[in-house]
Amino acid sequence: xxxxxxxxxxxxxLGHMPYGDVKDIIQSIEEHFxxxxxxxxxxxxxxxxxxxxxxLAVEFKDGAKFKQIMKKRKMSDNFKGPDGRGRIFVIxxxxxxxxxxxxxxxAAIIAAFCFLAADCxxxxxxxxxxxxxxLTEFMLPFIFLILTLVCVAVFLVALLILGIKYYAKGLKSYxxxxxxxxxYGLGED
Amino acid sequence: MEKKDxxxxxxxxxxxxxxxxxxxxxxxxxxxxxxxKAMEYDWKGTFGQVTTQVESIGD
Lengths: 189, 59
Fold this sequence. Notes:
With 189 residues, chain A is mostly helical. Chain A is 82% helix and 0% strand.
């Protein structure tokens, strides 16, 4: 497979990715081809070293950068098997730090959910009180209290959306990092 | 961080600022209202009644 064929297959596989990302990927692979050709390698050899375009596209879709993929390939080529230290590190780190931190963050998200529910319930109660006329004597302060609680609810919703999104992202990359340390060790050699 | 997230973050920050601002106004309004109520309340009468009751127990 030459350079043109490789690019065609890769762009077909990357089809659903944003245009800007595809452009960056193509540019980095083109640079890789140029470097290889300058070193005297043929287009076919370089394409073969890059591997199946479908597998490469999957890695790009997972959010990996070209340099990371090449580093990983180099690591797996020279890899002689895990020495055990990485696995012990993963177990100890997760038992005493990792899992606790993620659970604490999860508890914070659940607490924010409960706080939001309580906030909405309180707004409902005050509105009901104002409509039925039980709180008419303190009408103005209660109207301001409702406005305050609405602002708190907006803040909590924004916090929860961002919190859940980045929690999921962070957890995903944390698991990937754990897998990497488990399979390839701590990476000092 | 995406542009959408930045917008959401700014919205949250504005909401938090407004919540603090309105919260202070709410507290002041409640203090004024309750203060007015306390001023109107017949403290003398209430305590006078209690004093009489205590005195009658002593007798």
